[in-house]
C-alpha cells in the first residue's frame, strides 16, 4: 500500500497532533493494522482550520483533502454540504456542541429578598387566625358590654388595623374566662410558630447558592443578551453567521481552543463548540458552565478524498471495531478521564448564614410594637389636652 497522508491541524510541544489524542486516534489508528501501510505521514494544513466554505473555496483540512494534499482528515463532523466533495466514514464517536460561558456571580439580593419566604399560604394563615381572634374578641365585647351594632363595627375595624398581640393581650387579660385566655394563647403560639417557619425558610434561601443562568440556549443568547459568540476559524459554525438571521451578528473568531478559552474567561462572551477539548485544557478549573440546551449533537467521522482507494478497507475496520465494542470502550475511558474533574465541581454550594441576616423579622416585630406604643402615648396626651 502506498504512503498514507493524514491531514491534521497543528502539533503540540511533543510533536503530536492534538487531535490524534482524542478518541478518534485511540479507537481507530491504535487498532487498525497499520503495518500493511508502507508509511504514515501527517500533513499540517497551512491555515490551521478544520475546514469551512469561505469566499467560494474550502479551507483547512477539508481543503487539503479536496485538493489532494491529504488522503484523509481526522475528527471531521459530518456535514451535508460536504458530501459532494469528500466521502465520510461511519461514526467514530458522538460529539455535542454547547454554548460554553464563564460562570456568573450569584444573584445580588436586596431587601425584597426577605419577602420570598412569605408565600400566599402564610399570608392566608395570618389573615385567618387574626380574623378569628378579632371576631371572638368583638363577640365577647358585645355580649358583656351590650354595645350597639355601630359600635361593634367601629371596634372591629380598629382592632383589624391594630391587631398586635400586645393589644389583644391587654384586652383579654380583663376577662376571667379561661376560654378567652386559651384563645389568646393559641394566637400567640401560632404567631411564634409562624415566625419560626419564616425564619427557617429564609435561612434555607440564604444558605443556598443561587447561580445566575444568563441564557438557556444559543437563540436566546444571540437575540436577548449582549454576549458575543466565539467560534473557531473555519469550523462548523462559520455557516451559521454567513446566512440569515445572524449574518450581521458580530462574532469573534479564535485561532485555537486556547484563545477561545482566554476570550470567554476575560469578557462577556460564550464559546460555541464541544466541551471535551475545553475540559481537556482547563482540567480542574470549575469556572465554566454550559447552557441548559445544547446546540446540536453530531457524529465525528473520517473524511476521505474522492480519489482515496481504501475507503472500503477503513470502513470495514471501523465497523469491526464498533461491532467488537472496542471503540465504545475506548471512548468511554477517554471521556471519563477528561470529564472526571468537571464532574467533581460542586453543583450546589451552601453559604454560611449568620444570625444577623435572619434577625430582621424580630427587628420588624419589635419596631411595630414600639411604633404602636409611641402612637398610643401620643393619643393619650392628645386626649388629655382635649378633655381639659
UniProtKB/TrEMBL annotation:
One of its GO terms (molecular function) is ligand-gated monoatomic ion channel activity. It comes from the Eukaryota. This is Ionotropic glutamate receptor C-terminal domain-containing protein. Keywords: Cell membrane, Glycoprotein, Membrane, Receptor, Transmembrane, Transmembrane helix. The keyword Transcription regulation does not apply. SUPFAM superfamilies: Periplasmic binding protein-like II. It is found in: Cell membrane. The chain crosses the membrane at residues 122-141, 147-168, 180-207, 358-382. InterPro entries: Insect_Ionotropic_Sensory_Rcpt, Iontro_rcpt_C. Belongs to the glutamate-gated ion channel (TC 1.A.10.1) family. It is a multi-pass membrane protein. It comes from Strigamia maritima (European centipede). It holds the Pfam family Lig_chan. GO terms for biological process: detection of stimulus involved in sensory perception. The keyword Repeat does not apply. Residues 120-322 form the Ionotropic glutamate receptor C-terminal domain. One of its GO terms (cellular component) is plasma membrane.
Amino acid at each position: 500500500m502506498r504512503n498514507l497522508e493524514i491531514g491534521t491541524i497543528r502539533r503540540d510541544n511533543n510533536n503530536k497532533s492534538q487531535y490524534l489524542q482524542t478518541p478518534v486516534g485511540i479507537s481507530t489508528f491504535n487498532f487498525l493494522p497499520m503495518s500493511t501501510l508502507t508509511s504514515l505521514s501527517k500533513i499540517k494544513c497551512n491555515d490551521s482550520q478544520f475546514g469551512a466554505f469561505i469566499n467560494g473555496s474550502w479551507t483547512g483540512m477539508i481543503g487539503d483533502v479536496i485538493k489532494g494534499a491529504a488522503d484523509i482528515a481526522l475528527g471531521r463532523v459530518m456535514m451535508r454540504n460536504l458530501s459532494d466533495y469528500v466521502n465520510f466514514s461511519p461514526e467514530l464517536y458522538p460529539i455535542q456542541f454547547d454554548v460554553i460561558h464563564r460562570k456568573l456571580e450569584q444573584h445580588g439580593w436586596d431587601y425584597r429578598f426577605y419577602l420570598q419566604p412569605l408565600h400566599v399560604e402564610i399570608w392566608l394563615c395570618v389573615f385567618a387566625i387574626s380574623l378569628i381572634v378579632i371576631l371572638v374578641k368583638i363577640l365577647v365585647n358585645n355580649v358583656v358590654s351590650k354595645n350597639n351594632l355601630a359600635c361593634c363595627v367601629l371596634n372591629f375595624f380598629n382592632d383589624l388595623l391594630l391587631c398586635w398581640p400586645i393589644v389583644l393581650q391587654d384586652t383579654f387579660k380583663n376577662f376571667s374566662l379561661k376560654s378567652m385566655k386559651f384563645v389568646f394563647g393559641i394566637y400567640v403560639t401560632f404567631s411564634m410558630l409562624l415566625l419560626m417557619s419564616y425564619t427557617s425558610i429564609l435561612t434555607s434561601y440564604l444558605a443556598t447558592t443561587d447561580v445566575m443562568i444568563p441564557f438557556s440556549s444559543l437563540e436566546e443568547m444571540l437575540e436577548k443578551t449582549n454576549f458575543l459568540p466565539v467560534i473557531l476559524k473555519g469550523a462548523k459554525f462559520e455557516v451559521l453567521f454567513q446566512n440569515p438571521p445572524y449574518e450581521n451578528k458580530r462574532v469573534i473568531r479564535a485561532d485555537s481552543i486556547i484563545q477561545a478559552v482566554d476570550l470567554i474567561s476575560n469578557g462577556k462572551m460564550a464559546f460555541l463548540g464541544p466541551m471535551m477539548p475545553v475540559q481537556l485544557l482547563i482540567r480542574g478549573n470549575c469556572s465554566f458552565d454550559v447552557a441548559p440546551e445544547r446546540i446540536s449533537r453530531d457524529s465525528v467521522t473520517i473524511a476521505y478524498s474522492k480519489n482515496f482507494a481504501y475507503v472500503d478497507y477503513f470502513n470495514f475496520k471501523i465497523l469491526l471495531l464498533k461491532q467488537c465494542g472496542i471503540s465504545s470502550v475506548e471512548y468511554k475511558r477517554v471521556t471519563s478521564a477528561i470529564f472526571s474533574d468537571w464532574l467533581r465541581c460542586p453543583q450546589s454550594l451552601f453559604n454560611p448564614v449568620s444570625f444577623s441576616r435572619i434577625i430582621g423579622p424580630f427587628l420588624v416585630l419589635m419596631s411595630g410594637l414600639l411604633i404602636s406604643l409611641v402612637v398610643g402615648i401620643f393619643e393619650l396626651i392628645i386626649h388629655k389636652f382635649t378633655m381639659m
